[in-house]
Design brief:
Blueprint (H helix, E strand, L loop, with lengths): L26 E5 L7 E5 L13 E3 L6 H14 L4 H19 L1
Length: 103
């Protein structure tokens, strides 16, 4: 019995297409913004190379937990040479801002 494999890490058998004309296969990317570190998403393949692209965007992964977000951001900061003390201050400031916004 033979099996096939795909070089893509995408979880779907069929890759969605963006809203461009003509439609293009959506590009899988990884977010490294502090609010969504390591979270995969699909968007228009032209979004990084041209101002003339559609607004197609779709998350692949569910939202990250607060613990995961903080831990991954701290690890990235250490890997980038930022002192952990500075990263903790930033995290506390983000937490205070979140509390202020939600009140």
């Amino acid at each position: 019995m033979s099996s096939s494999s795909s070089s893509s890490s995408h979880y779907l058998d069929v890759v969605p297409h963006c809203d461009c004309r003509p439609p293009l296969p959506a590009k899988e990317r990884v977010s490294w913004k502090p609010s969504n570190p390591g979270r995969r998403f699909l968007n228009c393949p032209m979004s990084l190379i041209s101002d003339d692209h559609c607004e197609f965007f779709n998350w692949i992964d569910p939202p990250v937990t607060e613990h995961y977000r903080k831990t991954l951001n701290q690890l990235r900061a250490m890997a980038n040479g930022q002192p952990l003390r500075m990263q903790r201050r930033l995290t506390r400031a983000e937490d205070q801002l979140h509390v202020a916004i939600t009140q």
